[in-house]
Structures are given as C-alpha cells and as structure tokens.
Amino acid sequence: MNKDNLNNEILIEVKNLKKHFKVGKNALLKAVDDVSFSIKKGETLGLVGESGCGKTTCGRTVLGLYSATDGEVLFEGTDIHKLKGKDKKEFTKKAQIIFQDPYASLNPRMTVGDIVSEGMDIHGLYTGKERTEKIYKLLELVGLNKEHASRFPHEFSGGQRQRIGIARALAVEPEFIVCDEPISALDVSIQAQVVNLLIDLQEKLGLTYLFIAHDLSMVKHISDRVGVMYLGNMVELAASGELYDNPLHPYTKALLSAIPVPDPDIEKRKSRIMLEGEVPSPINPKPGCKFVARCKYAKSICNQQRPELREVKKGHFVACHLCEVE
Ligand code: SF4
C-alpha cells in the first residue's frame, strides 16, 4: 500500500538490535541477532517469517517489553532502553501493542469498558463523564457500540474481541503500535475486516505500525515496506510491491511461492518452491548463512561467511552472497 502523504521523518530507528536468551549453562539462543531497520511516521513496516524466526521477540524488544542484549532502539531519537521513571512511562503511552490472541489477551473478569480504559487510568488521562464518553468513542471507532461497554469478553466473537484489543491500544492515544500477529488467530473471513480497520485507523489517527505476521498475503495489503526474517536475521527488506514482484532472497522466493492464488487455473500452473532440509537450531548458530542447509543455490562461501544485508538496488536490501548490486 503506497501513501503519497508519507513524509521522511523517522519515528523508530532500530540499530544492530540483539536479543539473546541463555539456554542451560553454555548455550545462547539468538532470537534477534543484529537487526537494523527504521520506520517513518505514518508508515507500516510488515515483518514476516516462519514461527521461531524472531519477529515477535523483535517487536517486543522494540517496545522495551524485553531488554536488549545489544544495539539501540531510537524512538524520536532517544534510546528507549535507556529510559527511566517518568520518561519510560511516557514512552509506554506513545507506543502500544495489539496481541495475537484476542481470547487470551483480555481479562475475562473485566467489563469491556474497564479493559479499554485501563491504560487511560494508568496514565491519568480522563475521569468521570469524560472517561465514559472516551470509552464510548473508542468502541465506535473500532466498529463496536456503547452498549458493549458493560459486557464481558466471552460475549463477543474473535473478530469483536480483537476490536476490543485495538480500542484498548488506542485509548492512550499512541503514535506507534506493534501489531503482533493480530489476525493469525482469526477466521480468514474476519482477517480482512481487521486489516481494513487498522488501515482506516492509521489514516484517521496518523498511526505508525510494525505489523508482524506469517501470512504474507495479508501483509502485502497493509504494509508500505516488508522485512523478511530468518532465524534472527533480516534477510530481505524492500517496498511491499517490489518485494512481492521481485523477491531476491531464496527464502523470500520460497515463502511467496506458497501463497495460494485465488484463480484455480493460475494456481494449477504455479510452481511451489519447496524448502529443503531442516530449520537449523537458533541455539549457538554456526558461522555462515543461516539458510545454507535449505538453500539449493548455496556455494562454499555460504558456509563460511554470514552475508550482510546490503542495498542491491534503491530501497531493496538483501542478505545473500549471490545477489549482485545493480
Ligand atoms: Fe543461499 Fe548462500 Fe544466499 Fe544463503 S548466502 S541464501 S546459502 S545463496
């Protein structure tokens, strides 16, 4: 999705971010391993990859929900991992998250009104009648209505619960939202509705999104640019249309070939690239390209040297030894 009104002001800059977890005595799980990207104000950056590729850990470290092992996350120029006290609380107001599972992320004992207003109360934003009015407005904004405020989460469908989760995130008037697989737990018929709602809200409120998903077809509709992660590394990053029309990394090509096409004739003729070999363990990874065991193009250099993410043509970055700079 292209937006002509995007300015070039960077809201989030992630520099060489690492998030490693100790496993047992000597092992290190490198969930996020030297990842860099930036997101402009009003932009949506999609982050895709198979489960276990580090995209959710990356999103949570960007929000400061996990501490960073190394690297920086600059929000409006300030490293959020160095914030303390009042400044840290202020950042939690500006940056919010929508969770994957609308069933698990809402407290079943709280009314929808209390769930939506929890963040407003923490930040002391509204009280009394103004607070009630704000709750009603938020519910309307996400396609619900004020009668829903006194009900409990179990009375709603999956799609409606995700709308409640979105209203909760919006209640503190954030600038940036990490959408952590917000449609993965929903029926296919509902997924497009939630994606369209997020697009509408972005236009109305000027929001900036990091949209995490493993479903590449939906990511295309919402994202201005898309980053592909594999075992803790960003392997390709480009404008959404460019990535889908001209994928360069063998892993991206395989992921895209698995997207079903709605036309049965095209679908029949389409060849799917099957990924070979095992997904290697993210614990104590070997040197070289992490994709080497599954890549049919691998050469000897791929076992020895990890490919850097390089700009091979304007705005198109790839981490593969075989991709030439144009
Ligand atoms: Fe395949 Fe080598 Fe490129 Fe890795 S660097 S994706 S192994 S060709």
TrEMBL record:
The upper taxonomy is: Bacteria, Bacillati, Bacillota, Clostridia, Eubacteriales
Q: Is Cell membrane included in the keywords of this UniProt record?
A: no
List, alphabetically, the Gene3D superfamilies matched.
P-loop containing nucleotide triphosphate hydrolases
Q: List, alphabetically, the CDD domains matched.
A: ABC_NikE_OppD_transporters
Entry GO MF terms: ATP binding
Q: What is this protein called?
A: ATP-binding cassette domain-containing protein
Output the InterPro entries linked to this UniProt entry.
AAA+_ATPase (IPR003593), ABC_transp_ATP-bind (IPR050319), ABC_transporter-like_ATP-bd (IPR003439), ABC_transporter-like_CS (IPR017871), Oligopep_ABC_C (IPR013563), P-loop_NTPase (IPR027417)
Q: Which NCBIfam families match?
A: oligo_HPY
Q: Which Pfam families does this entry report, sorted A to Z?
A: ABC_tran, oligo_HPY
Q: Which residues form a coiled coil?
A: none
Q: Which family does it belong to?
A: Belongs to the ABC transporter superfamily.
Residues in ABC transporter domain copies: 12-256
**Which key words are in the record?**
ATP-binding, Nucleotide-binding, Transport
